[in-house]
Amino acid sequence: MASGVGIMRKIIAGDRHRRTRLHDEKGNIVDAGEWKHLPSVLHRVAARKLFGRLYDEPWWTFTIKERVAALLRPDMTVVEFGAGQSTLWLAPHVGRLLSIEHDPAWWERTRGALARRGLTNVDLQLRGERDYADLAGVPDGSVDFCVIDGLLRGVCTRAVLPKMRPGGWIYLDNSDKDMDFADDGRNLRAAEAMLLRHAAPADVRYVTGFTIGSLNAQQGMLVRWTGLNQPVPPRPPVA
Fold this sequence. Notes:
globular; alpha/beta; single chain; seven-stranded mixed sheet; Rossmann fold
């Protein structure tokens, strides 16, 4: 019995950021509605670790994936910061997808996967930090949905807000991270703070759940962009 308790403790043990695997980095425990997805999470973790299999789906929570799936339409224009499995999942559901990635190996892997699946509606761009969040080529008010994942999430949030169509949606992945750092204008704390300043409370939805491909809790933030009249603060320079 004691050994069984020890094994369970090891399985759910946290780290310096989380109290346990069942808590996100803000200290929130997994939402009650997420527990029904635990068997599917365990299946995907086993498939990845034992067979190297990755499903064409984002490493969000199942609840966020379901909510986003209900929002997507084939006429949508989408911007994604951080390419990967989410790119392969989003592309068949939308009209046009601009996906920006900074890692050459991951960009090449995603590019090959898109080609094998015949997905031609994705503009997959490899960028460095200096121009990672540059959306100068995207018309204002034209983006229906944005995924903010990857580098400089505060900078990416600032860049995409003028591009959003009123009534569109923004998903900030890992909104529980960077809790050890102040709002520096660039990190996740800055991204969350900016979205909260520019969205009505009723249009903000948080979900804490199990990451689809990894047995850890994380929080995601889904925001309906209504274009409140507060100006977007100027973008700080990227060193």
